[in-house]
Every structure is written in C-alpha cells, then in structure tokens.
Amino acid sequence: MMKQVVEYQGIPVGVLMPRDGCLSFMAVKYDVMELDGERFSSAAEAREAVRVHVRSATQGFGVALKHCRAVDRPDSELQP
To answer: Bridge-partner residues for 15, per DSSP?
Structure first.
C-alpha cells in the first residue's frame, strides 16, 4: 500500500492513508493535529485543508503557506 506524505514548507506534517474508499489524514506535527482522522476524497482536497488550517492558525510554521504537497512514498521509507 502506498501512503502519501503531506508536506508543508518541505516538512512532513501528515500522512494520507487509503481507508474505506477515502484518504484518511494522520497528523505527524502538532500544528495540524486538528485535522488528524479527517477523511478526504483526494490528495488535493487534503492539501487544501492543510493550507486553510495553517493560514487560519495564529501559531504554526509561518505566516503564509509557501507550498504544500503530497508525495507518494513506499511504506519502507516512512519507517525509521
């Protein structure tokens, strides 16, 4: 199974995992923890949710989102 890593300013902030026909977001950074467990129909929808969330947060990685992307990585690359 391929997971998609969602990055913000080059920093992994979450992982999208296929679940029940959707993509389930698992947060790996505190700044996006409110999105943990949310389900999305596409990676683009998840990226937009991260953008909106980070922009609306008063604290976080920065004042403006420079880029957010989902990167396909095999499971073996996600484990230390």
So the answer is: 5, 26
